[in-house]
């Protein structure tokens, strides 16, 4: 299987790399980390202006319609410079709306996301032992009906009571109750896609960030992203797709792959820093890069990064070909968590004392790698879920 990027994806990579290199400098990232929201809004707007935010969004919403592969190219470039913009969460949410949302949801949310004028985020995690596809947050369906003015007068006549025309639906909706943990970059997002369980099964539900019954508790994360815990108390919501039809699993698979893409970029950026530093730093009269023990460490990093890339693109290809992708997505996520964390740890180690100096950029790669490795469950949880998928056997269509 050939995972070489085609010309279109190479063009996306080159454009994204240029924008991130120009806009996400070490000085700018440090400045954003000390800002109130910790999101680089000017970079976000620039990505929208360049058409990169909508790279995977459908053409009818103003996007390029290039799918998950193009998004992963963009996320990989973000990871290489640890640019503080909420790309993976907002993009996965937009993909879910595009694929499963109603026409009204698509029309109201996708154009603003593509332009960079608005965004959303996803709430997939909870406290305690859990699987991302098995949320404890509860979704309750509520249906309001109002009597039509002539209903009482028309009893017994065609269209009267009992015919189905005497009462009209004022609107079907949902109410959510529960707590979601460490929602990524919610401040500045207009809506959040919440994983919850209904009587008919699990699903995704669209909630306005400032709706009644919605409370946010700020939460610090390892990567300096300003996340929040989301407390829902009978909060109004709309279903995105039908609960119980696999929409949540669909979103979790793509979130896992998106995180793997960011982690791949993080590992690449960390290794690049290490190679530059070790080629210049000298001990005993020669560069550290010439020491065999150091070379072995960097060789291990290179091998891990190559494996991460193969697993990522195997998952992307499987999803884009419409095949069952649960196992491939979990393999990609396991490599991102296990190998990605190993890479940033080795890079931190070979930098010696300067590796823990927060004025030097390498520490950010370790922090991002650590955060991503634990998102949606760590490597051990990924293996357990993968075992369950494999034990269930192949899906027969």
Descriptive overview:
This protein has 397 residues and is an alpha+beta fold. The protein has 3 domains: 7-118, Acyl-CoA dehydrogenase/oxidase, N-terminal domain (Butyryl-Coa Dehydrogenase, subunit A, domain 1, Orthogonal Bundle), CATH 1.10.540.10; 123-240, Beta Barrel (Butyryl-CoA Dehydrogenase, subunit A, domain 2), CATH 2.40.110; 247-391, Butyryl-CoA Dehydrogenase, subunit A, domain 3, CATH 1.20.140. The chain contains 11 helices and 9 strands. The strands form 2 sheets. Strands 1, 2, 3, 4, 5, 6 and 7 form a 7-stranded mixed β-sheet that branches. Strand 8 and strand 9 (286-287) form a beta hairpin.
CATH topology of the largest domain: Butyryl-CoA Dehydrogenase, subunit A, domain 3
CATH class of the largest domain: Mainly Alpha
Principal-axis shape equals globular
Report helical residue fraction.
40-55%
Share in β-strands: 15-25%
> Which series of helices and strands comes N to C?
HHHHHHEEEEEEEHEEHHHH
Write the CATH homologous superfamily of the largest domain.
Answer: Butyryl-CoA Dehydrogenase, subunit A, domain 3
Extract low-pLDDT stretches: 144-171
Number of structural domains: 3
> Number of DSSP strands?
9
Count of alpha and pi helical runs: 11
Overall pLDDT score: 89
Radius of gyration: 23 Å
Named at the architecture level, the CATH assignment of the largest domain is Up-down Bundle
- The end-to-end distance, rounded to whole angstroms, is 23 Å
SS content category: alpha+beta
């Amino acid at each position: 299987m050939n995972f070489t990027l085609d010309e279109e994806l190479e063009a996306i990579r080159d454009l994204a790399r240029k924008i991130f290199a120009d806009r996400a400098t070490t000085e700018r990232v440090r400045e954003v980390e000390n800002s109130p929201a910790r999101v680089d809004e000017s970079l976000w707007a620039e990505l929208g202006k360049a058409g990169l935010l909508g790279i995977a969004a459908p053409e009818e919403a103003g996007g390029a319609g290039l799918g998950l592969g193009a998004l992963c190219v963009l996320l990989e470039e973000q990871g290489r410079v640890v640019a503080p913009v909420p790309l993976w969460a907002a993009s996965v949410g937009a993909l879910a709306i595009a694929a499963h949302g109603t026409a009204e949801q698509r029309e109201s949310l996708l154009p603003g996301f593509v332009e960079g004028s608005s965004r959303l985020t996803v709430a997939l995690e909870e406290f305690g032992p859990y699987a991302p596809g098995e949320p404890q947050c509860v979704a309750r369906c509520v249906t309001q009906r109002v009597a039509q003015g002539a209903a009482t007068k028309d009893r017994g006549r065609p269209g009267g009571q009992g015919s189905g025309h005497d009462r009209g639906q004022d609107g079907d909706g949902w109410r959510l109750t529960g707590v979601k943990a460490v929602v990524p970059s919610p401040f500045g997002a207009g809506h959040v896609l919440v994983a919850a369980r209904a009587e008919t099964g699990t699903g995704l539900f669209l909630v306005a960030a400032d709706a009644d019954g919605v409370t946010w508790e700020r939460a610090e994360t390892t990567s300096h992203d300003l996340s929040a815990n989301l407390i829902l108390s009978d909060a109004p919501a709309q279903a995105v797709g039908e609960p119980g039809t696999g929409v949540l699993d669909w979103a979790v698979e793509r979130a896992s792959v998106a995180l793997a893409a960011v982690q791949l970029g993080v590992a690449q950026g960390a290794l690049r820093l290490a190679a530059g530093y070790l080629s210049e730093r000298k001990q005993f009269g020669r560069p550290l890069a010439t020491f065999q023990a150091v070379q072995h460490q960097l060789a291990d990093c290179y091998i891990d990064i190559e494996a991460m890339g193969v697993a990522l693109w195997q998952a992307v290809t499987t999803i884009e070909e419409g095949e069952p992708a649960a196992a491939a997505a979990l393999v990609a996520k396991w490599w991102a968590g296990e190998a990605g964390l190993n890479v940033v740890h080795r890079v931190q180690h070979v930098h010696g004392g300067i590796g823990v100096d927060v004025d030097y950029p390498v520490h950010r790669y370790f922090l991002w790698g650590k955060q991503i490795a634990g998102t949606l469950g760590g490597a051990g949880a990924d293996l357990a879920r993968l075992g369950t998928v494999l034990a269930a056997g192949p899906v027969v269509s």
